[in-house]
Amino acid sequence: MKRSGILNRHLSAGIALLGHTDTVMVCDAGLPIPDGPFVVDLAFTAGVPSFERVLTGLLDELVVERATAAREVSGHNPGATALLDRLFPAPALDLVPHEELKTLTAGARLVVRTGEARPYANVLLRCGVPF
Asked: What is this structure's pTM?
């Protein structure tokens, strides 16, 4: 059994499939998930696991070139806004309309659903390479 890091076998397998420029959507419990991407649903109860915990855990495992979030996050979820600003300092974060972010989700290789119950706690990560 794995000793540390991400223990969820489905999430570990999904991460192992990722290559350069593949995208990963880390989303709250309310984001509609289209058919197509490999989905790992971690939601247990409202708020568990949190968007922050899942996102920071994934960032320990991935190289991320850019991130994309909904423009609406800044007006509706100050906690997620502060987290995204801290993790993806300008110009590493692109902001797009929420409807566009939902459309981009369909092209993600992996979707990780958290138990987050606050609005607009969603971010699309574009994978990079470690060199």
From this structure: 0.95
